[in-house]
Design a protein that fits this description.
The protein is an alpha/beta fold. It folds into two domains: about 170 residues, Rossmann fold; about 90 residues. Helix 8 packs across helix 9. The radius of gyration is 23 Å and the shape is elongated. It starts with 19 loop residues before the first helix and ends with a helix.
C-alpha cells in the first residue's frame, strides 16, 4: 500500500499486531531504502514482521536463514560443479557443459536482486554469522551488485529490496554494521498487547479462558532458572491444545493448575524446574 506521496505505508497485516513506533521505523526505512535491524528475544515477532510487510505491501518474500557456518557467497550464488562434472561424464543432459552460467544458481540475496519485481528480503538471525560476513553483506546491499567470479559477470539488482534483518542479540554486531541500519528493539508483549494478539488468532476466544491463559503464561515466564522462556507462539499453541481437549477444566486452570506444560517448555530441564516450582507454590 502506498500513500499519496508515493511512499509505501505499512500499517500491519492480518495476523500481526503492530505498535505505532514500529510502524514508523518500518516506513521510514522503506522510504530511505535502508535495512531495518530488529533485535529482541525469540518469540517477539521479529521474523513474522518480514512476512507481515510482504503481505501488506503485496511483495514476494525471500528469506535468508543465516547459519554459523554460512559463507557470504552462498547467500549470493552457488556454482554447481558436481552437476557439471556429472554432465560432462555421462553426456545425457540438455545443459551445455561448456557454458558455466547454466550451472550457476542464485542464493537468497541473488534471488532478490534478479527478481522482476521488488521483494522483501528477510535476513534472519544475522548474529549467527561472523563479523566479516555481516560487514561484507552490507557492502553488497549498499552497492546493490555483486560479481560472479566463475563467469566474470556482475549481477546488479533490478529493484532494491525492502531489507529486514533480525538478531536475537546473542552476539554483538560491529559498529560499522549498526551504523548502516535503522534499528528497533521489539520488547516482549505486555499482557494487554498479548490480549490483542490472541484476539487476532482466536476471534471467538472466551474472555475467561483468555484471562486465565495470559495470567498463567506470564507467571510461567517469571519462574526462576528457566533457560528458554515460553514465547508468543508457545502461548498460541498451548491455547489450541486446551481448546482441543474435551476434558479441559477451566476452573482448575484459574486455580493455577497448568496442563500441557510440554507445549510451553521445550527443554526438559525447564519443564522439570517449572513443574517443581508450581508444585511448591500450591502447597
Amino acid at each position: 500500500m502506498s500513500s499519496d506521496n508515493g511512499f509505501f505505508q505499512f500499517r500491519g497485516a492480518s495476523k500481526y499486531v503492530l505498535d505505532e513506533e514500529l510502524a514508523k521505523i518500518v516506513n521510514v526505512s522503506i522510504a530511505l531504502e535502508m535495512p531495518l535491524l530488529l533485535k529482541g528475544e525469540p518469540g517477539t515477532g521479529k521474523t513474522m514482521l518480514g512476512h507481515a510487510i510482504a503481505e501488506s505491501l503485496k511483495m514476494p518474500l525471500i528469506v535468508l536463514n543465516v547459519k554459523s557456518s554460512m559463507k557470504l557467497v552462498d547467500a549470493l550464488y552457488q556454482y554447481d560443479t558436481l552437476t557439471r562434472l556429472n554432465d560432462s561424464r555421462f553426456g545425457d543432459s540438455k545443459r551445455d557443459v561448456s557454458n558455466i552460467e547454466e550451472y550457476i544458481k542464485m542464493g537468497k540475496i541473488g534471488q532478490a536482486f534478479v527478481a522482476d519485481q521488488r521483494t522483501v528480503l528477510l535476513i534472519d538471525e544475522i548474529d549467527k554469522a561472523d563479523t566479516d560476513f555481516q560487514d561484507d553483506m552490507l557492502d553488497i546491499l549498499d552497492q546493490m551488485e555483486f560479481d560472479i567470479m566463475e563467469i566474470d559477470k556482475t549481477i546488479s539488482a533490478k529493484h532494491r529490496p525492502v531489507i529486514i534483518i533480525t538478531s536475537n542479540a546473542k552476539k554483538d554486531l560491529s559498529d560499522p554494521f549498526l551504523g548502516r541500519c535503522n534499528f528497533h528493539h521489539i520488547a516482549f508483549p505486555t499482557a494487554d498487547v498479548m490480549q490483542l494478539i490472541l484476539n487476532v488468532h482466536f476471534p471467538n476466544l472466551s474472555r475467561d479462558l483468555a484471562d486465565a491463559c495470559i495470567e498463567n503464561f506470564y507467571k510461567l515466564r517469571e519462574l526462576r532458572s528457566i533457560e528458554k522462556k515460553p514465547a508468543t507462539r508457545e502461548l498460541i499453541n498451548w491455547i489450541r491444545a486446551l481448546r482441543a481437549d474435551p476434558d479441559f477444566d477451566l476452573k482448575a486452570l484459574q486455580k493455577g493448575e497448568v496442563p500441557y506444560m510440554g507445549v510451553l517448555y521445550k527443554k526438559s530441564t525447564d519443564l522439570v524446574s517449572a513443574a517443581l516450582q508450581l508444585s511448591r507454590a500450591r502447597k
